[in-house]
């Protein structure tokens, strides 16, 4: 994939904030397989989610119900619906 495909922004199409009593919690980013591949990401690994106010590591979930160009977020602070974020592979 060309370098610019990995740096494309994604629109936040859905956001879930969990409660302490919820069985599944923590930062998560959902994106379709094409967007994940363009960023060299696989299901279950960590990725940086960089929003307009902060960045946070989140677990990747490949979900083909998410449209190309969109992402779904759970428990990622500093973003709201319809904002754009960068999702990138961490450079370890």
Task: Provide a descriptive summary of the structure in words.
This protein is mainly beta. Helices cover 11% and strands 38% of the residues. It contains 2 helices and 6 strands. It has a 6-stranded mixed barrel. The longest helix has 6 residues, at 33-38. The model has no long low-confidence stretch (mean pLDDT 92).
How many alpha or pi helices?
2
The order of strands across the largest sheet is: 1-5-2-4-3-6
Radius of gyration over C-alpha positions, nearest whole angstrom: 12 Å
The SS-based structural class is mainly beta
How many E-type strands?
6
Mean pLDDT: 92
Largest sheet data: 6 strands, mixed, barrel
Write the layout of secondary structure elements.
Elements (H helix, E strand, L loop, with lengths): L2 H4 L2 E8 L11 E4 L1 H6 L7 E5 L4 E8 L7 E5 L9 E5 L4
Parallel strand pairs: 1-5, 2-4
Antiparallel strand pairs: 1-6, 2-5, 3-4, 3-6
What is this entry, summarized?
By secondary structure, the chain is mainly β. Helix content is 11%, strand content 38%.
List keywords for this structure.
mainly beta, 92 residues
